[in-house]
Design a protein that fits this description.
The protein is built from 40 helices and 24 strands. The protein is an alpha/beta fold and about 950 residues long.
């Protein structure tokens, strides 16, 4: 190839690469071309300009000057089309890098790069090499009649001379048995690709001859003494050896492109599923008989270990079909049936990995037989037994229940519970395909009207639908219309409950029925409208990813009570998810606890466990197991079979633990004590605590603690009071969270409201108004809490109230105060009872302090004022007793002396307190006051 031709090829290749990466062609610079071909820049520039003059390239003026092919637009269109390499299973996943390397190797000028394929036996090296050959033909690097010559070096490894003769050819008499001239495979591959498998089996002499061919493009036949002959071939080698082995280092030095193909265990479940479908299709083409494969057989093929990779998977599928073919011939069945019962043990062992890959398998929706069959004489179709309609499934389930002698009433109950499960499984089978694919199996009119309805429903009920619902619902509606035309009944046993529970969605479905009637002149029955409603209700669960399912454990006293309940539930649901544990009366509690703990650990998939028990010690096991394992557990006692059925059914739908709990508890009103969540049952055993916290220091919190302790006269349960100092809101939140986790937190009493909205919060004002009594009486009905009168020190139930207006000065008109100061008059009694100060005197000077701040628009709320009163009283009490008040980190955050105005206002407001009570408050107290105003 001439240099100018190489330049043209480089520009074309780089332009195509630009479009694939950027979606547009920007052009190629002279420097890029020179670098790619290792030529001088002037030579590259001259060739580029010559190509422009010849009308083969377009020159884009600018800095730098760029060049692109005139047919870039056409190239851009071609780039969007999938190549044969892109069509390989896994090309966009595990083989993505390998495909990219292969394309680069073929396109690299002038003739491409020799390539070494690495991988274990059976990974598909031969197939990959052949696909590279077809790709080279498709893009024009090789002619349509170019040869692809494959040779396995292991076939002649025992006879090195014969191996070399096969590869390079031989002259008559060049070795014993060479009775005529032989043309070698290298010569036959001229102009195409030579694929050498198991290349590491070449003899040292053969390796040297191959390396000479790679380096020079020249070879000589055995016994040939004339000059070397030249060939233009692309060599692809393959080996199972490690690339780092001494043997292969010589290869990797000479072969620039090394492509490693992944083993089957490194490929995704989705890729393996595509491989399985491909191999079953190949068998259908071979035997011309439909093949029906059970879901368990498919799961086994998806999960078992294949030591020999894709090659073994293909062989095992062929063998399973061969075994099933004998039964097909003998029984004269309609389909050849492959089920798990006929599979060898080493394939069935794959089921041990079911739990590990449960999520991936659920996405595939393998719940029914799948039929591989020939359509239109040549096309292989993969048909889900349940693809066309869910009605057949429901009818079959009803028929099975009737055969078991179940009453119609119970059948209706069970089917009502199961409808949402079937619809969810039905929709889960459909992937995000394009509309053109959907139009091939459903009338375009049905698809379009369904799409129109979903837009309407989205706006009507304010819900965004997933991509899957269009495909699932379109196919369902198509089946519905056909069923109505045929006069078949549509029955929805859960219609009344659907109308009641999902009124908005049902109204939207009614609108859809009108659209369908107007479009197809078919009256949609109410029962079908119920089904449509469940499609739009359950769409949010389809494709919603949870790490696992909630474990369901039924534990009861007796020899078979729990296991019998579980057996009924599992059989009705067609699954084996729920687990039963029978506890004979003579079994020791310690033994039962250890065994159930193991069950919990085995059945926890990361979403917790719901335990359904009868009574006694089993009720407490949830807490004990949680303490030892930290696995979230919800326990429901006095469980019944319907409750077990509902818990298992919801779990199979991947409904979260909380939702399952509420669904089960709402199922029946006849439930004994229920622990609403894991923390409820844990709290039954934990210490009860009340947290008192203050941002102005721990001293105030201690005073609040003393007040609360004084209120609790008789205790049905021990309640600990924990005082906290709040350094910051984050610090406060972290401390409350830790206490809540370790203790049964009844309430938080503080001037600052916690960020956790689930915590019972009381302000100091609410505490002193008696709100704690209400909280405790709800939690502990037998507890006696004596609440003092807020306006006197006498704690009797009746007292003579004082005249607040005469005791404390009111706020003058026009001042910026959020409340009337006389509402704090009761605090003088609190000061008298819990400090050594004179309450009346303290409140008088506090009023002066409060009014001074109000004059300067410093606002302190009523709750903050109560906290500040307690804090100042504690601080002054300490100073009067000779204690030193430490410095605060808050004062380090702000240099108060830089804000002289604020410092002067706070100082002036505190001065009457200091003078009247003969103390000097440190700057730290100024910080506390401002912090309180900031947080409140």
């Amino acid at each position: 190839m001439k240099r100018i031709e190489s330049v043209m090829m480089v520009v074309k290749t780089l332009c195509e690469e630009q479009y694939r990466i950027d979606g547009m062609v920007s052009g190629v610079s002279t420097d890029q071309v020179a670098m790619e071909l290792s030529i001088l820049r002037p030579n590259a520039s001259g060739d580029l300009n010559a190509l422009v003059k010849a009308g083969k390239l377009e020159k884009l003026e600018g800095k730098p000057v760029l060049y692109k092919t005139l047919d870039s637009e056409a190239d851009e269109e071609d780039a969007t089309e999938k190549s044969v390499l892109d069509a390989i299973i896994g090309a966009d996943k595990s083989l993505k890098n390998a495909v990219k390397q292969a394309k680069a190797a073929v396109r690299y000028p002038p003739l491409g790069l020799h390539t070494l394929l690495l991988g274990e036996t059976g990974v598909g090296k031969s197939m990959f090499a052949e696909t590279i050959f077809h790709y080279a033909q498709d893009i024009g690097r090789l002619h349509d009649n170019a040869p692809f010559v494959a040779f396995n070096c292991a076939d002649y490894a025992h006879n090195p001379q014969l191996l070399l003769a096969q590869l390079f050819g031989a002259k008559k008499g060049s070795y014993t048995g060479a009775e005529r001239d032989r043309v070698g495979l290298v010569e036959k591959a001229n102009g195409g690709i030579l694929f050498l498998d198991e290349v590491h089996r070449l003899s040292p002499e053969g390796q040297e001859m191959l390396f000479y061919l790679i380096d020079k493009g020249l070879f000589r036949s055995m016994g040939e003494v004339e000059e070397y002959r030249k060939v233009e071939i692309l060599i692809i080698c393959a080996t199972t050896e490690n690339a780092d082995s001494t043997l292969l280092r010589t290869f990797t030095r000479r072969i620039p492109m090394i492509i490693k193909l992944p083993v089957i265990r490194e490929r995704t479940i989705g890729e393996r599923w595509e491989l399985i479908k491909t191999f079953f299709k190949q068998e259908v083409q071979c035997i011309h008989v439909p093949i029906r494969v059970s879901p368990n057989a498919l799961k086994a093929f998806l999960l078992y270990d294949c030591p020999n990779n894709i090659g073994q998977l293909k062989s095992d599928i062929k063998l399973s079909c061969a075994r099933a073919f004998l039964d097909y011939v003998g029984n004269k069945d309609e389909n050849l049936k492959v089920s798990s019962e006929e599979l060898p043990e080493y394939i069935l062992k794959g089921f041990v990995k079911y739990k590990e890959h449960r999520d991936d398998l659920d996405i595939l929706g393998l719940t029914e037989d799948i039929i591989f069959q020939v359509t239109d004489g040549k096309q292989i179709n993969v048909k889900y037994k349940d693809t066309i309609s869910i009605y057949e499934v429901l009818e079959q389930k009803i028929q099975n229940l009737r055969m078991k002698g179940m009453s119609e009433k119970n059948i209706q109950l069970i089917m009502g519970l199961d409808i949402d499960t079937y619809i969810k499984q039905y929709m889960a089978k459909f992937r995000k395909d394009n509309l053109e694919a959907l139009y091939k199996i459903v009338d375009k009119k049905v698809v379009d009207i369904t799409q129109r309805f979903l837009r309407y429903a989205s706006n009507k009920i304010g819900k965004k639908f997933s991509d899957k619902i269009l495909f699932g619902m379109s196919i369902h509606i198509s089946s519905t219309l056909e069923r109505i035309r045929e006069g078949k009944e549509i029955s929805n046993p859960n219609l009344a409950e659907i109308q009641k529970s999902y009124s908005k969605e049902f109204a939207a479905a009614m609108h859809f029925s009108i659209l369908l009637k107007n479009s197809f002149d078919i009256q949609i029955p109410l029962d079908e409208i119920g089904f449509i409603t469940m499609f739009i209700v359950l769409d949010e669960y389809v494709g919603k990813e949870y790490p696992g399912r909630v474990g369901v454990i039924v534990a009861m006293h007796g020899v078979s009570t729990a296991t019998s309940m579980v057996e009924v539930a599992n059989r009705l649901l067609g699954e084996s998810h729920a687990v039963g544990y029978d506890m004979p009366l003579e079994k020791k509690t310690e033994t039962a606890l250890a065994e159930i703990t193991q069950l919990v650990e085995d059945n926890n998939e990361g979403q917790g466990v719901i335990m359904l028990v009868d009574m006694g010690s089993l009720v407490m096991f949830g807490h004990m197991i949680y303490e030892n394992t930290a696995i979230p557990i919800k326990t429901i006692e006095m469980a019944s079979t319907p409750m077990v059925l509902e818990a298992a059914r919801k779990s199979l739908m991947r409904v979260p633990l909380d939702d399952i709990y509420y669904a089960v508890t709402n199922l029946s009103p006849y439930i004994g004590r229920i622990y609403g969540n894991t923390s409820d049952i844990n709290n039954y055993f934990k210490d009860n605590v009340i947290v008192v916290a203050c941002i102005t220091g721990k001293g105030t919190a201690i005073k609040l603690k003393e007040i609360i302790e004084g209120l609790l006269l008789e205790k049905d349960r021990k309640i600990d009071i924990i005082p906290l100092e709040i350094a910051s809101m984050n610090d406060f939140t972290a401390k409350v969270k830790k206490i809540k986790r370790e203790k049964n937190l009844i309430a938080v009493v503080s001037s600052i409201k916690p960020q956790d909205g689930t915590v019972q919060y009381l302000s100091p004002k609410q505490l002193l108004e008696g709100k704690l009594d209400i909280v405790l009486s709800e939690l502990f009905p037998n507890m006696i809490v004596e609440v003092p009168c807020a306006s006197c020190s006498d704690q009797s139930r009746s007292c003579n109230s004082v005249d607040l207006e005469s005791d404390v000065e009111k706020v003058p008109d026009g001042l910026a105060a959020p409340f009337a100061l006389d509402r704090l008059a009761f605090m003088k009694n609190v000061i008298n009872e819990h400090t050594s100060l004179d309450g009346e005197e303290f409140m008088e000077v506090f009023a002066l302090f409060y009014l001074e701040l109000a004059k300067h628009n410093f606002i302190i709320s009523e709750d903050a004022s109560i906290g500040l009163i307690l804090h100042l009283a504690c601080a002054i009490e300490k100073l009067l007793s000779g204690e030193v008040i430490g410095s605060s980190n808050r004062c380090k955050r702000v240099d108060w002396h830089k804000d002289e105005k604020s410092h002067a206002i706070v100082g002036a407001a505190l001065r009457p307190i200091e003078e009247r009570l003969h103390v000097t408050l440190p700057d730290n107290e100024y910080c506390n006051i401002v912090d309180l105003m900031h947080y409140m």
